[in-house]
Amino acid sequence: MADRRGGTRPVDPAREAAYAVIRAVHAEDAYTNLALPAALTRHGISGRDAAFATELAAGTIRRRGTYDAILAACLDRPLAKVDPPVLDALRLGAHQLLSMRVPAHAAVGTTVDLVRNHVHRGAAGFANAVLRKVGARDLDAWVARVAPDAASDPIGHAEVAHAHPRWVVEQLAASLAHHGREGELEQLLAADNDPAKVTLVARPGLVEMSELEEAGAVPTGRSPYAATLPGGDPGSLPAVRRGRAGVQDEGSQLVALAVADAPVTGADARWLDMCAGPGGKAALLGALARQRDAHLVANELQEHRAALVRKTVARLGDAVTVTVGDATTPAWEPASFDRVLLDAPCTGLGALRRRAEARWRRTPEDLATLQQLQARLLDVAIASVRPGGVVGYVTCSPVLAETVEVVDAALARHDDVRLEQSQQLWPHSDGTDAMYLALLRRS
Description:
This protein is α/β, with parallel strands linked by helices. It is 49% helix and 14% strand. It has 20 helices and 11 strands. Strand 5, helix 15 and strand 6 (295-300) form a beta-alpha-beta unit. The radius of gyration is 24 Å and the shape is globular.
């Protein structure tokens, strides 16, 4: 609420939009990737201003843990005692001061104006004093002051320096160690804080890669259908607007392709995507199935997500059937599919570059609940594939409790199943989300 005594000072639309997104995420449990486009539209922002607003909002939310530790050192009261709208503005100001090329006077002044306009004049004076303290040091100097010692508490140091909850750091470190990559924790955490590139998928049979290249996209060289878009709105490309191409992380493409390309004995006509929403992998699989005279059943638990799948696969015609149902109690016949993709519900800790708020919302307790669901779904996937067929178990998480442990337990339960391939992708080394794939064959 504006201060009636002092009036308001206009703040540029990009910062207004970013502040609105940050408040929505923290006060209303909104999702950054959904709140941001609405805020940009509401404030009439596009082009460079949209990119600036995106970095302001997503960067502030992503690095919240680091900024909170720094702000706590600048306050004369506990962080929990700061009015939430003021605290969110301070986080936004800290991000500009410490992680963006924004002049200090602009970072402080515009943040103070946001507080004056949205809270009150007294809070604006408080924000001004705090941010001047924040601006007295650069980010490295602040981390050296407020983070635990890296030698005596490396996990605690990484928690503050790279803005990941401690339990998440521990899980990622354990997964790296399991895969023989013990020395790469710092690189992985740093990669999680870098915005992901926009990657397109040229859906086979619907668009040629050359059309995306003519629009400025650059093929990645790994997935034959992947190309990165250096800038601009992917929705402005005709191929994306018309569903012939889409936005899809290359890791998602690679795991879907592994399921589609694994050899099977006998027939290869019926494919299943058990948890298909929102439809990216289903569209790629469906396009490949269409080229091979196969048929994909794309199942989704929730109707609103099934609607997203229908929209995504609309160009594929009768090559894909979208069904709505609980995959733990399936309506389809056992052993009736040649290929099964189980993109299992998970913590999403492999996609922290894209989901700015995810690291702050997930809890250790989520792992046990999700692991039970993943185990039930994998049992159904195995029962759904015929002998000689393949199951792809996929998660957008590298956490061992959701990946290796689930697969090992399933192999122990099913003596007619063998592991043919497993793969763990990483943001810092592969440039993809941390996708996990286990390719299982039923004998």
